[in-house]
Amino acid sequence: MTRKTVGGLLPGTLLLVLLSAPGARAQSGPPSSIAFHSNRAGNNNIYVMNPDGSDQIRITPDTSNNQRADISPDGKQIVFASNRAGGGSHFEIFVMNADGSDVRQLTFTPAANTNTWPRWSPTGDWIAFQSNVGGAFQIHAIRPDGSAQRQLTDSAINQFPAWSPDGTRLAVRRDADIYVIDVTGASDPVRLTTAGPLNQMAAWSPDGTRIAFMSTREPGNYPSVFVMNADGTGQINLTPKMDTGTGTWTSRAPAWSPDGEYIYFTGLRPGMPGEQIHVMRADGSDQTPLTVGPAVSAEATFRQVRAPVITSVSATPNVLWPANGRVISVSVAVGVSDDSDPAPACRITGVTSNESIAGPAWWATGPLTIDLLAQRSGVGAGRVYTLAVTCTNSSKLSSTTTVDVTVPHDQRK
After folding, report:
1. Which of 109, 150, 355, 370 yields a CA-CA distance of 20 to 30 A from 169?
2. Does a structural domain hold residue 312?
């Protein structure tokens, strides 16, 4: 067997190994993790698809106007707006299982009211949405079972709620600008945009450092996707207009991939019969349509996916004795749970030693196996190898923990 030498480091030094995943798709994520609505079948219905645009599946096979869907963080439910309860412009909020079964109505308002743009909180405990039940649109929140509905805003016009990754704030359109509001009301709203005429449809990056949004500030007032830092600085147009036609270049409704590397958006481009779902890198490059056809496809949302949770880790053996300079094979067992990937990939990604080591002392032999030198200094309490173990899911989100393997000073330790 060929060994890869990864040893011979000073104490406290960490060496990362084997992090790449050959053959992984650029737009990674769990199957059916994007929801969107399209009128390709004659009326608006909810569809889901994979992150690369494949396997587009219709979820609501009816004649109602079903739109603006969002998948729950655990992937089990889809919330959406529909006029099935009253027809026309009377929209209510509904939730259904991910396969379209068991549709339940969550909001009940008088005819001609509109409740729409529902968005799951990061924990799945709340659904924020916009409603004009009191006149001007305001932001409301409701439990997924339809209980505990409450109004979160009460001034101006507030629309298009977007949860921060920690679930404490919402980015909203207030009048014509993007504001961030504290859902507890503990702090005042913060205005992030000032360049008009319209800024809306905000979306937080998964790490909470950036916000993508739609703005019509460019000459000609065409909708374009911008990105800014979470404090409102550094506002950049990611989709500047590349043609001179009228109404042939629009970009709106951004949504981030779970790893923060890509932004999905609704766009119209020359030669397209209607709006389609596109994807681009987070810097605006590599813009690619994912849906095609004569019908309008609109407003994709990406399921909020979390990193794997490492529940246990152990090394066998975890004590190397005697300290006679032999090379001993060590295997690591990892317990991991992930609500979006049934089999996250786990591997040893680094090693440290508490002692200075002159030459190689460990060699990688597999994702969760390593050879360690049963050796320690003649002084001190003994050597401690600390193995870093990383688990990565299909969305390229990772969690890391450590496990120790010791070479005691003597057999009593």
Report:
1. 109
2. yes
Q: What is the 3-state secondary structure (H, E, C) of 26-91?
A: CCCCCCCCEEEEECCCCCCEEEEECCCCCCCEECCCCCCCEEEEEECCCCCEEEEEECCCCCCCCE
Report which of residues 294 and 340 the model is more confident about.
Answer: 340
Q: Tell me what pLDDT residue 86 has.
A: 84
- The answer to whether residue 294 scores a pLDDT higher than 90 is no
Question: Which of 15-19, 116-120, 323-327 has the weakest average pLDDT?
Answer: 15-19
Assign residue 80 the CATH number of its domain.
Answer: 2.120.10.30
Number of domains in the chain: 2
What is the value of pTM for the model shown? 0.89
Domain encompassing residue 385 = 4-22+308-408
DSSP 343: S
